[in-house]
Amino acid sequence: MIIRKKIRIVINSCVLTFVLLYLNNYSSVIIGSRIISTICSVNAIDQETVTRVALRMSDINQTILTAELFKVLSDPTRLRIVQALLIEELCVCDISALINISISAISHQLRLLRSMKIVKNRKQGKMVYYSLTDEHIRKLINIADEHIHEER
Fold it and tell me: What is the pTM of this model?
């Protein structure tokens, strides 16, 4: 049995009309002919599945650290720094010139990236050069780029 309900929402004087479709214990929000989301309308937990997944999930501390890594990489300036360092090792002045931000601001961003072990530095005389800590960061950025450029 199919049950349809129309819902009207007013946002900033614009009236949006959604059609809520109930079909086979699932509900879907439909705008035009496009399904926006599907959620269970029945609360039934498959304990076997939940247990199996829970045993394979990371612990909460690992999840927090992973979220922090993504949070640091979510800043466009820091991501541009990492993208530059994907190509080659650079000093602060070179990074500043590439990204068009002050040396002070670049140093601050590099400090955050170092604290998360995303970049490392080495001194050569009076110069300090930065590079990626390891291949994991390179792979992470490359996978994100591939994901963005996938055909949908």
Answer: 0.68
